[in-house]
Amino acid sequence: MGSGSSSYRPKAIYLDIDGRIQKVVFSKYCNSSDIMDLFCIATGLPRNTTISLLTSDDAMVSIDPTMPTNSERTPYKVRPVAVKQVSEKEELVQTVLTQVAEQFSRAFKINELKAEVASHLAVLEKRVELEGLKVVEIEKCKSDIKKMREELAARSNRTSCPCKYSFLDNNKKLTPRRDVPTYPKMLSCLEHMYHDLGLVRDFGMNPVTLKRWLLCVHDNYRHNPFHNFRHCFCVAQMMYSMVWLCGLQILAQPECNILSNLQPDGFKQIRQGMITLILATDMARHAEIVDSFKEKMENFDYSNEEHLTLLKMILIKCCDISNEVRPMEVAEPWVDCLLEEYFMQSDREKSEGLPVAPFMDRDKVTKATAQIGFIKFVLIPMFETVTKLFPVVEEIMLQPLWESRDRYEELKQIDDAMKEPDLCLLYALSWLQKKTKGLTRGDSDKSREKSRDGKKSEGNDLPP
C-alpha cells in the first residue's frame, strides 16, 4: 500500500527567482504545457511564454512530468526565451504557410472558386427575391381566377342554355344586356379558358407565366379600329365555345397528345402549327382551304394528320370572321369598326395615288351591301360545311347567319327605296300591305276561335 500510494504523490520542484526560492508542486498527470504555465505564473511571466530551465551549472532541463526533482539547495533557474528568436520562428512559419497557401491556390484555383461561389450566391439571392414576388403574384392570380369562377358559376343558368332571352314567372321577356368587357376582365376570361380546358394542368403551365404571356400579347396589339386586342379576344372566345360545343377532346387521348413532352422537336411542331393556322386566316386562301375541306368531308378521318390540319384551319377561319354569328347588338358595332378600318386604308391609298380595292372605298360601299355578299358567299357556305361534320353547329351558329342575311337584305331594300321617291312610296305601301294582311289574318283567326268556342259552349248547354 505504501509503495502504491507513493506513486500518486505530487512532485515538488524548486525555482530560483531573482535569488528567491519558489517551490512548485504538480501532479505527474500534468502535461508539459500545464507545468510550463505553472512556472510562468511562479516567475511572474505571462502564460504561454516560452521558458527554459537551467541547473546550477547551466545545463538545460526538460519541462515535463518526468523531469528530475531537486532541492532547495539546487534550485532550477528560469530563463525566458528571447522574443527575437520566437519572432524569427513565427516569421519562418508564416512564410512557409504563405508559400503553401499559394501552391494550394494555384492547384485548386481558390480565387476562381471564390468568384464562382459569390456569383452563385448572388444568383440565388436574386432568385429568392423573384420567388417571393412570384408568390405574391400567384396569390393575386389565384384570387382573380377564383372570382371569375364564382362569377361564371353564378351565370351557369345562362351559359347552359343556348336561348337568347330569359323569362320571368309572369312571361315578361327581358332585353339582353351586354356589357363591353374591360381589358383586365378579358385577360381574366382568357386565363379561365386555359384553366377550364385543362391546358394549364395537362401541359404543366406556370400560371404566372401564362398571365405574363397574355399581357405581352395584349401589349403588342395595335390600336386599330377592328384588328385589335378585342378582336383577338372574340376569336379566342369563339374557339373556346366551338371546342365545348363540338366536344373536341382529341388532345385528351395520350396517343394523340403531341405536346405531352415538349421536347425541341415538339416545340418546332407547335410553332409550325401556329404559323399554319395564322396563315389560314388569310382571305386570299379562303376558297382553297374550304374546297380542300369539302373534299375530305366525304370520308373524314380523325386519325389522318392532313384531315386534322384542315379541320383546325377551317375552325380558326370560322372563329376569325364569326362576328355575324353573335347577336345583332354585338355584331353590328364590329361591322362599323371594320368599315372604318377599310375606309382609313382606302383614304390613305387615294392620297398616295395607289389603287383602291372596291370593297374598301367609302364612295361605293354601304354596310348592307358589304355584309350581304360576305354572309351569303363566305360565311354561310363555310359554316354549312362545318355543320356536315358537327350538326349541332346549325342551330347555334348557322341560324343566326341566315337571320343576319335577311336583316341586311331588308336594310338594303330600305336604302334603295330612300334613294328614289317612287320606290320609297312603293316599299311603304308594300310594308303596310304586309302589316294589314297580318292584322286581318290575326282578326280572322280570333273570330274563328270565338265561333269555335261558342259552338263548344252551345254544345255543352244541350241537354243530355
From TrEMBL:
The residue ranges of the PDEase domain are: 126-244, 247-415
UniProt superkingdom:
Eukaryota
User: What are the protein's GO molecular function terms?
Assistant: 3',5'-cyclic-nucleotide phosphodiesterase activity; metal ion binding
Biased amino acid composition, Basic and acidic residues: 440-464
UniProt-listed GO biological process terms: signal transduction
Pfam families associated with the record: PDEase_I
Keyword Ion transport listed: no
Has the keyword Transport been applied to this entry?
Answer: no
Q: By its UniProt entry, which InterPro entries does this protein fall under?
A: PDEase_catalytic_dom, PDEase_catalytic_dom_sf
Q: For this UniProt record, give its keywords in alphabetical order, as a comma-separated list.
A: Hydrolase, Metal-binding
Q: Which PROSITE patterns match?
A: PDEASE_I_2
Provide the residue span(s) of the region labelled Disordered: 437-464
Q: What is this protein called?
A: Phosphodiesterase 9A
Native species of this protein? Rhinolophus ferrumequinum (Greater horseshoe bat)
